[in-house]
Amino acid sequence: MRQENIQDCSMELLYLSDEDTHFHQDIEILYIVEGETAVKEGETYRLGKDDIAVINSNQPHAYSSARNTIAFRILIPYRTFRKLIREEYFIFCCNSVLYTSRDDRDLRILIETLLLQYLNMEHADLSEIASLLFQIIHKLTADYRMDRDSLKIYLKEHMSEKIDRILNYINHYYYEPLSLTDVAAHFQVSETYLSRYFKKKTGQNFINYLNEVRIENAALELRGTDASITNIAMDSGFSTPSVLNRYFKKKYGITPSEYRKQIEESVKNDAMKIEKVEEVRKSLYDRIEKRIQDSAVKEVTINVRWGYIPWMNPNKIIDIGEASVVCEAAIQEHILFLREVLSIRYIRIWNLFSEKFMISTDFSGRNFNFESLDRIFDFFVQNKIPLFLDLGKRNRVIMAGHDNELYSVNMQYNLKTIEEWKNLLEHLMKHLVRRYDKHVLSQWIFEFPWNKEPYYSQDYRYLDAYEAGWRIVKSNLGSSKIAGIDPHGGIDEEQFRETVHELSVRGILPEIFTIKIFVDSTHQMMGERTFQSGSDYLYARQFIEKIRGILEEEGQTYQMCISEWSNSLSNRNIVQDSCARGTYIIKFILSIWKTADMIGFWHGSDAVDIFYDSRKLIYGGGGLLTKDGIKKPSFYAFEFLNKLGGHVLKIGNNYIVTRDSTQRIVCLCFNHREYSYYYYMKKENEHFNLSKIFQSEEKELVEFTVEELDDNKEYMIKEEVINSSSGSIQNEWQLLSNQEELGKEEIQYLKNICIPKIYIRHVRSEDRRICLFQNFDAV
């Protein structure tokens, strides 16, 4: 259909054809009405029906579209955004395929409403169309604009050289009477220097490049608008139409008028028939009405031929806690079970130098007794489990809630000097080398985190303690990996930067950088930015991106590891035993999985949280297993994530669909709810009823359409379900009247029934597709 222009913005419903790599100054919003297209924009991804993508200004991109793919394309001038935002650089992170943690429903309804107005252009109120365009601009600016810290990192990565900034400046201001003098003045260099530098970097002189950009823009306007040649010349930065004609004919071999006629002829051949337009209009009316009236129902289309994004499960670590608890038979049993079923790579423990182990009475001497530690290490070595050893000092703590310690005690020896720290660590490393095979030890990770508690008391500096640890481990086990820095919440950005730089100068940066992320704790490094209810994964991503940006300034290779994370620090919160925690785990992992190489969950078993108040079967402990080894819904969250295939077909706000090597399709769905205001009115350990602490009790309705299957073939659909009526320990215990003391028979009964409920059905494909309607309870 005809391209329409309102408030300098253009919009068009078109059959999306293949387009070679190109770029333009305008911000492009692409909405797929029917069909699919592969977009190459750095990485390649596929957009299907209802998907939205925003192509940022001057971002090279190309399209490879399936036949008869229909798209609605909106082009908004960069200068329009710049006037409204009042900033020179901005990036929008809006892509329903790549940024799946966002809910795009509001933006989608705005775009579809605008499309309806476009289809009724003859009778439309132009002020209403202008209003919709500005609502879309506001929505993008308010909800999808990259934050300033992330933008700094982006500009550093993509505009690290001066030539990148110069080209970006030209691409943004080409329509003005731009000269070499203007650009040289802006970048505070001489004209002679800029001219030589530009020619060296681009292979052409300044004026030729500027005219290339202007001609590209002119060609875009000739293709998409009915503006006069004179106006297009002025809009593109040419002084007169004759100047445009001369340069345009030199590039394309024809005049702008002849070029427009060719485009108009090709458009006539590809014109959308009236019947098709009416079909799109009716479909939009139905779709918008359905979304507005029943916003809970979601339609998801899955094409089994997709799968460009590899799924890499980052859940490689389970935190157990104090080294001393590993001596307990129940803990060992739980460790073996978790490692086998969840395919965990590392078990992470800390406080190796506990007074419980009676290691020494003189840490400056030579007499050390590591027998108690040997029993712990032997267990892991015999069962071929690599260790992630946190060698920092920390209190033994049981948290009832944020800033609410139920129990806290220092169990580690209090070393006085760095020499005692070095002596203790040197003796431990030599002992390990004598006792165990070096190949086994080379698989362990030795971590020196930046905890609040110091490694020693006199003249303490974290940097010195870390360096001593790094050099001692490397001198004894050169192939073992070192982890750190894991800054505690009181470390600000300046301190972190200085420490990282100093470690880089000394050549002792860790191979694995670690951080902790808990929903109810913040970091000074993030300034005024804090966790917000329901969006803590966004805070987590921003925190990781900030850390990465600082580290990459040092030009080092490293792995990023979230060594500890959970929805709460509390080990006395009923949410920890519920299905709601399982949905949180899945949502968090799907939101940040691309940003971290390894993730460690706090923690594996409630058996580490036993205290005077833990007589009950469950008591809000933070483990994946109860103290009796019964699997909680949070355990199944990890097990379900572990069953995903290696290729992502689609990710949404409440689902991920993958394909494995056997071509089996695995879909993981969940109905995650945010906390209500009532949750924050009480302390975490004061809640005894889940019904009031969430914003919604609504079910999630999703209609999955799986396409490109074998036609007329029977498929088996297997469902595994965990919810309040199927497999939840919290709900099953209620049916036993929340009896505090249970016998072995009752505990075994709960172990047997706290498992997913399984359904199997058979569906035959029609027209190479099957439709599945799923109803997910608010768990």
Q: How would you sum up this structure, described in words?
A:
Strand 18, helix 18 and strand 19 (512-518) form a beta-alpha-beta unit. This protein has 779 residues and is of the alpha/beta class. The strands form seven sheets. An eight-stranded parallel β-barrel has the order 12-13-14-17-18-19-20-21. Strands 1-2-9-4-7 form a five-stranded antiparallel sheet.
Rg: 30 Å
What is the SS-derived class?
alpha/beta
Order of neighbouring strands in the sheet with most strands? 12-13-14-17-18-19-20-21
* Rough outline: globular
DSSP strand tally = 28
> Mind summarizing the main beta sheet?
8 strands, parallel, barrel
> What integer is the average pLDDT?
86
CA-to-CA gap between the ends? 47 Å
Tally of alpha and pi helices: 23
Poorly predicted ranges (pLDDT <50, ≥5 residues)? 531-535
Portion in strands: 15-25%
**Share of helix, binned:** 25-40%
